Batch of 4 targets.
Target 1
Amino acid sequence: MKSRYSLPGRDASPRRPYHAKANYGMPLLLSPLALLTGCHAAPQINVLGSFFPAWMLSIGIGSIGTLLLRRLSVRAKFESHLSLRPLVYFCLWVLLTLGSWLVFFRV
């Protein structure tokens, strides 16, 4: 028996919803997660009795170093020759941050 609300050319039989279909690719897709079982603890630095992650101190060293080098480049009248200042200072910050990580905290 056809319903009066059914579309022409289609029967009114219920169809399986999309989520009820078997998905055999999902276990294969999630299997590499079994290899990510864990890593050793992140290095922590004791600063005045409080433990800080080493990456946080590296970011601070990179930020302060970038500000000091910017001030030095302004005094030396070198900053006016830089064309893409935000990119230059961002790259300098990354260099100082990763460099301080390698020098001080990489074990």
Target 2
Amino acid sequence: MRGQEAVTLGVSCPVSGTVHQTMEWLRHRWVEILIVGLAQAAVGLVATWSLRQLLAHEVAKDVGIIIIWLAVMAGGIALLIVRPWQQSEKTIVARAAELYENRTVLNELRKGIRTELGTASRLWVAWPGGTTVIATVDAADIRRIDRMILRDPYGDTLADYTAQAGRSREDAASDILETTRIARREGVNVRWLSKPLISVVFGDPETQHGWFRHEVILPYTPAVKWPSIVISRSSYPALYEAMRDAYEGMWHESREPGPEELGSG
């Protein structure tokens, strides 16, 4: 079913087969074809001359020459077609991104937030409230989080978020306070942001194999319908760095909650 599949996004790979595509291929690669053809001819001629000098039997010479020319031709074809095609396939795999159209699909295919957090040794997160996460993961998973950004329960943007998410401000503020208390007990560095916030989870953000999952907050839509996209650093390094810069900006603009703001819980 469409709703139970993660959509893999990636660069497209043209498949030859039409006259137009063939002409385009020839137009862009005629220099390489010429060079490979000349190299094939040179190798073939040298090999033919060598065989004629080494072999005495005429039939053996003819068979050897045919085999050599077939091998030379196959090598040229491999250079011009097979190798670029393999590189293109690798490019598709390397630049793939995962799109999950809602939270239900995300939980089914990524096996829930607890499994997701367990795939990384260190994490940075930014969540509107994080209550669902805190309620479903254990202390060991929470301790993997180095940075946690939540909405400021006393900030002006909380009212905008609750109106869009269909929640009361009081309930959302209470959830944020509880999430903060639990996370801080596990040693997580928690900060509050009173400015616009993007929902994102970074796995191993300071390594070359880092990744992020961005959940798109759709205004006036239930959270269960919010889509997510997963990007790895190796797939889209520029996009990865841009998202990390955005996170760093939120971190810089956020603040540490004071003890008097948290209360006793």
Target 3
Amino acid sequence: MNDENSFTPLEILEIFEGTWMEDAIIQKFLERGMKQGLEQGMKQGLEQELQALRATLLSFVETCFPDQLALAEQQASFTTTPLQVQELLHKLFAARTSNEVREILLSIPHA
């Protein structure tokens, strides 16, 4: 036992080794581990998507409105979800002037 009130997963398995509960415990550990792995994977995937969309936003601004790149870099760091960046990109794609781009970028809420 690792402290007074808890057992490690290995200790639990050793306690129930050879009993009818061993398989049920193993199954529960596997389910819990898979759930945690999926949650972590989804979180990492969303973060990667967010970074890719931010890069797209910056590339677009650099190509079409280079005078607004510094502001875009600053404001992109305030985006928190891929959907938020997608919505910004749609607005930026419709912008015709540098002032419109500036207004769109300044509309990003700060955390």
Target 4
Amino acid sequence: MYAIFFPASIDPALSASSCGAAPAHVLVIVLKQLSRTVLLGLLAGVALAAACLNCCDANFMASATSTPLSTYCAALALFSTVAAVAALLPTHRALRTDPIRALRYD
């Protein structure tokens, strides 16, 4: 899955830090890539959820499928938090490693 979103074979945080980038700059790079991918996924998920909800309304008229907006907001917050943690933990680990040593083993 990682190769789909980041086509480079080397971790972007590692390659940027090996070129002498500051850790803050590496975090900006990772957060830009994360935000683009997560935003597209969240928008697609909300659109599909709304479409499925309308489909259920059309097929099951007796069911009460009115989902409050707070449910959507809670799901968006949960998935955004999980995505941020999933991206920032490996980035933090990559920033702690010595770039020369990591490239030597690569």
